[in-house]
Write a structure and sequence with these properties.
The chain is about 35% helix and about 20% strand. It has about 140 residues and is α+β, with helices and mostly antiparallel strands. The strands form 2 sheets. Strands 1-2-3 form a 3-stranded antiparallel β-sheet. Strands 4-5-6 form a 3-stranded antiparallel β-sheet, with no helix packed on it.
Length: about 140
């Protein structure tokens, strides 16, 4: 599904990142990062060979992210997004990790939102987050 959302140009910051180890002398081959300045949300693309194509793709991803935030916050206009709340949430750490310093000590992972902790550091790093997710769902209900 393509999202049609007008984003004012003055709200966008375009950052061009040159590709490393370019074998081509084409100056248009680069990564593109677009930032929505009021919210701090960004999108990056470097999959295409052309800067213009990467810009278009990054803008499409950014538009989708902003649309999802609008739906989540229940607002109809892009300007109504509560950017300060969003920036606060995005800048808060979710978990703290303590790795074992020797074989006698076990590492720990603390979920700062729910207060849950576990010693299964390797499992959490492998993506096994079920206990944290369940605790988060129970906390919201």
């Amino acid at each position: 599904m393509y999202v049609e959302l007008e984003i004012p140009q003055q709200d966008l910051e375009l950052i061009i990142l040159p590709r490393s180890n370019l074998k081509s002398s084409d100056p248009l081959e680069s990564w593109v990062r677009i930032v929505h300045v009021p919210t701090g949300i960004s999108a990056i693309s470097g999959e295409e060979r052309s800067r213009l194509q990467n810009r278009k793709k990054a803008l499409a991803v950014l538009t989708s992210k902003l649309f999802a935030i609008m739906q989540r916050q229940g607002v109809q206009q892009l300007a109504d997004i509560q950017g300060e709340i969003l920036k606060t949430v995005l800048n808060q750490p979710i978990r703290e990790y303590q790795f074992a310093s020797d074989s006698a000590n076990q590492g720990k992972v603390w979920d700062l939102r729910t207060g849950i902790q576990t010693t299964a550091v390797a499992e959490v790093l492998d993506g096994k987050l079920d206990s944290f997710i369940k605790a988060g769902v129970l906390l919201k209900n």
